[in-house]
Amino acid sequence: MALQALYNTANLFTSEALKLLLITTDIILCRVEIFVKALPLFGLTLMIFVTDGLVYRDIRKFQAGRESTLFFHRAKLLMSFCLLIPLFFYLSIPLFISPMLIFIVQSLMLGISIKLAAMYFKKYI
Prior knowledge:
Blueprint: H1 2-37, H2 39-62, H3 69-92, H4 99-119
Helix pairs in contact: 1-3, 2-4, 3-4
């Protein structure tokens, strides 16, 4: 009899844990779907900032400005940081934060790092 009660308690705990796991998975998948739907925002922002960075690069090149690869390599490292850290933050935070707030800030940070990388790119295009 005691074994049956222990078995029922284990089933109850397992079913609650399974429900919690399914709810958590559903929330994360919904947030990933929102991120995928925000990809056109990132594409538009990146096109604008790449164009702006290349214009600044041409202006600097025509004025015989200095070229340094330090800024290019730092901006290249900053790109992955600006893309992944806010995404992981948004996926893992247990509170509701408007996705628009996170993705607009994320796209601006990513755009500025892309602009810096395009601005200090030394190769001939």
